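MODEL INPUT / OUTPUT PAIR
PAIR INDEX: 1
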Amino acid sequence: MNGGATCKGRAARGTREEGEMTKADIIDAVYEKIGFSKKDSAEIVELVFDTIKETLEKGEKIKISGFGNFVVREKKERVGRNPQTGEEILISARRVLTFKPSQVLKNALNPDRQNG
């Protein structure tokens, strides 16, 4: 499952799963497809990720047309259970990140299931 971007020479830098794309791979793809220098490509990718992170830290939604929505949800404090002992424990309130893919992305991932 290689979405067109190749990961040339990446295995030599460290171990990783087959079909996994790293930030370095994204930088390489920007470098190869757009023709910016490696340094400029890295700065652009870092800027995009920093902007996404800062926006999410503020609790704001990110909508990327044709890709999907990132939403920070507030989860309330709740009672859970330790699966080993059965003892009730308090799970603290926290913020979680959710991603909902767009219909365009869903269709790209499942081309045989259009409109379904």
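PAIR INDEX: 2
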Amino acid sequence: MTASKRPRYNLGDEQTFATIYGKGTTMVAHRKRFTLMPLIALSTLSLAVSIPTLASGHLYAASPQRYETVTVKPGDDLWTLAAARTASGSDVQETIDRVMADNHLETATLQPGQHLRIPI
């Protein structure tokens, strides 16, 4: 193409954000804009529901448990150690179960020199 045969564009043929195709036909390009409004509305609704729910709950902490560390002597068994440290009127078997759970014991067999944590 030579310089004289280049198509010429008339500024009147095009408009901002639109192109004229032939006479009288205008095509306007619409772009959807991303907005944060749906996200803000959803967040606000979530907070409106969850904050009262979370604020109404009460947390109760367990009282700290005190332990006595005992070294097993020859002839000691779990029943006598637990019975000596169980309050009167309380169940010795419950104390034995707690001693076994707290010390990760699978059986009630004790070895001399073994250290046990017994709740008091």
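PAIR 2 NOTE: Residues 38 and 44 are 10 Å apart (CA to CA).
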